[in-house]
Each structure stands twice: as C-alpha cells, then as structure tokens.
Amino acid sequence: MRDECESDQRFRVLLVEDEPVAARLLQAQLASVGGRVTTAGGVQEALRLLSYERFDLALVDLGLPDGSGLSVVGGAVAAGVPAIVQTASDRVEDAVEAMRAGACDFIVKPVTPSRLVRAVTAARGATPPGVARPGSPEPHTPMGRTLRLAEKVARSAAPILVRGETGSGKEWLARRIVELGPRADRPFLAVNCAALPADLAESLLFGHERGAFSGATERHPGRFAEADGGTLLLDEVGDLAPALQAKLLRVLEDGEIDPVGARRPRRVDVRVIAATHRDLAAMVRAGSFREDLYWRLAVFEIEVPPLRERRDEIPELIRRFVAEAAETGRAFRADPDAVRQLSQRDWPGNIRELRHAVLRAVVLADTPVLGLAAFDWPPASADDGVADPDPGHATEPFSESPASLSSLAEVERETIVKALQFHGGSMTAAARSLRIGRSTLYRKMELYGLSGRGA
Ligand SMILES: Nc1ncnc2c1ncn2[C@@H]1O[C@H](COP(=O)(O)OP(=O)(O)OP(=O)(O)O)[C@@H](O)[C@H]1O
C-alpha cells in the first residue's frame, strides 16, 4: 500500500469540513500540493468513507454539525490514517484533546497556505500508523506505538510525562521527541531531580541573583533560563521536593520563574519533558505529589515499555552497541546463538543493562566473535552471591551522574571496579579475571583515579 501511495504522487486526503466556502478553499490548497481530495461534511459521512476508502491523510474540522471531529480522529487513527485537526482560535483546548486522541498536528483557523503545507508535509513525512519506517520497530509492538506517539507529540509544545522502568530509554525517547520537533536545534538540558542537593535545588533550577544567599558570589541563571527557547528534561520528577513542585507548577502555568533574590519574575519559554519510573498517579493518591502538577505535566503521557516486552529489538540493539564499541577501532560481532539467548533474558536494568553488557564484552574480548560467556559479568564461574548488582541508578556506583554512562572508558572503569570488588581488592585476581596484566590493570586504575583505594 505504501508503494502504491508513493508511486502515485497525488496523495489521498479526506477533508472533513462542513463549511462549503472553507471546504473549497482548502480543497484548492491541498490540490495545489498534490492532494486528491474527498470531502465529507460531517462525522458520519467521514467515518463511512474511512471504513471503505484508503486515505493517506485526514484534515478534520473539530466542530461538525453531527458531532465532534474527535470521533473522526479516532476513526482515522484506527484506520492508520494520520489526522490533522483544525480548530477555532478560542478552542485550542479541543486541539489538545484531539492530539491525545491521536491527531498528529493541529492548525488554528483561518489557516495560511504555508502553515497548511507545513502541516501536510510533516504529517506525510511522519510514519503513518501501521506502516513501518525502515529500521524502526514493527509498529504494532508496544515500542512501535510509543514511537508513533512520540512523533505526534513532537510538534506540540505541551508538557510530556515519560514513564518507564529504570534504563528503559526515557531520556533516549525525550531526546528523540526533541529531535523530531521544532526545538531540535535549541538547547536541550536534563536535570536529575533525585540528585538535586536540597539546599541548592531551587537556585539550580530557577537561578539566583548575586548575593541572594551566603555563598552566592555570582549570578546564576538556573536550568530553566538556560533552556529558554528549548527543552528541559526533568528526570525522576517524582523526587522533586514539595516546595519545588509548587514552583514548577508556576512555570508551567504562567511561563515565569522567580530566581532566588530577584526583584521580579522572568519569562521563559521552555518545553518541559518529565520522566519518572514511579507511579505518579499513586503518589498523587498518597499525597506526596501535587495533583495539579501531575495534570499539568501529563498532558501527554508516554510509556516506554521494559526491554522484556520488546525482545524483538534486542538483536538490533546488540548490533548497534557492538558497532558503537567498535568505533574505537576493534571490529567485533556477536555470535548469533549468543544473540538468541540474550534475547530471551529479562534484562531488569533494561537497555542500559544490555548496553553495558555489550560494551563490557567488547572491552574484555580477545576474539572477534563474542560468545555468550563474553556478555556475562561476573564470569560464569563466579559465585552467584556476588553477582552484578541491579544496574539501575540507585545501586550502580558510576551511573548516578546526570548523564548516564556513555563512553567505553566509563564502562571499562566500572568493569575494573566490579572486578576489584568481586575479588576483595586483590589486583592479581582482578587482573586475571579481566584477562589483562597486573601492570595494565594498575595503569588503568591510575587513569581512572582508582589507585590506592581499591574499589
Ligand atoms: N532505543 C534505543 N536505542 C539505542 N540506545 C538506547 C535506546 N533506548 C535507550 N538507549 C540507551 O540505553 C541507556 C539507558 O537509556 P536512558 O538513559 O534513556 O534510560 P532512562 O529510562 O532514562 O533511565 P533512568 O530511569 O535511569 O533515568 C542509554 O545509554 C541510552 O542511550
């Protein structure tokens, strides 16, 4: 079907508009950019057309004589047709609802030709539901749905709440959303709310004036001001202290921050993406998270599924991480049987755990083909009692810095620490299990600032 649509330059548009003059105008504009337009004047007619005709795009007015255009959006999404909604300028909240129902964009009436062309081009460029882009996961998988939703919300400026287990790729998804949206080349900053020191949290986020408190020798803009015009990822938002929850609500509601010690508030334009592995709704019920803030943050809520529910991605991820590690000049590939077995594992630390396992395997490899044993740490002979700790932020000593572990060197350092821990600080035993000489181990410990304190 995709081929058929690509070979026919004229894409098929379902235009749902009851106003004859507006319909004629839009029809002409759509035709001028290659659209073959079928018009429906109401909900029932549109749903009927969607049920037996194929369309590449639907442009839906929300206020229709026989009901809300939202039902048409639902029908289009169910039929795998990207939907753009049109709304009056005083009904933008309806557009938010339509986006939640799966619309990929909204335009406010009266639409200019250039805005219409942009919306249509973007919607046609977005993967239509049910059609996989080469290299992207199959669309009916949980992650396929997540990515489709990400593509849709990327174009809006509304806050997003990304939920998912530790290491499942919440920050990765947030970055992807930003890349797909109009703020792609604007600042992107990430703050781990769980790691904010209590006494400095407010000024780190919202800034302070010089002399605002003892020790404030310089003015500091704070993360919100630094992200002005761009996006701020608030990771572990569930860990934000109640006083800061109130201040965050103010930014989201009024677009203003109050730097500590400043005489007047400052306006900022920041898209907030919040991420959490916690059940924020349960926290709201328990009284530890503000309900009003929850509703503000969760205009769009996106779930990143745990890796065990997207096992089909594991072979590709392994290939990608092996290639990433091989950028250091060493060429490796994973043994297909190992890949099969690794794909069956549960990976409680999700993609981060898989990535570390692959990077570690490359660090330790002495053959170009990585067998299953290469991915296990501690090595298979090791005592289970000292097995790899939960690879989540809470327990992993070197992954709690704001950026997650990223370089091969960091993984190498972590591997050395674990080897030393495992062998009770014995360098000889650690070097043997790492399959490197004692002097190499010593050199690397120096390099990573580990010498003299064991693990
Ligand atoms: N789809 C993906 N493809 C490639 N790498 C990915 C993907 N998803 C996540 N990763 C990588 O996995 C690691 C963990 O991802 P990320 O930091 O986004 O997880 P997280 O859910 O935000 O973790 P946490 O809950 O600890 O904050 C990162 O190195 C990231 O680059």
From TrEMBL:
It comes from the Bacteria. Residues 12-124 form the Response regulatory domain. GO terms for molecular function: ATP binding; sequence-specific DNA binding. Residues 143-363 form the Sigma-54 factor interaction domain. The modification 4-aspartylphosphate is found at residue 61. Gene3D superfamilies: 1.10.8.60, 3.40.50.2300, Homeodomain-like (1.10.10.60), P-loop containing nucleotide triphosphate hydrolases (3.40.50.300). One of its GO terms (biological process) is regulation of DNA-templated transcription. Residues 382-405 are annotated as: Disordered. InterPro entries: AAA+_ATPase, AAA_lid_NorR, CheY-like_superfamily, Homeodomain-like_sf, HTH_Fis, P-loop_NTPase, Sig_transdc_resp-reg_receiver, Sigma_54_int. PANTHER family: TRANSCRIPTIONAL REGULATORY PROTEIN. This is DNA-binding transcriptional response regulator, NtrC family, contains REC, AAA-type ATPase, and a Fis-type DNA-binding domains. The lineage of its organism: Bacteria, Pseudomonadati, Pseudomonadota, Alphaproteobacteria, Hyphomicrobiales.
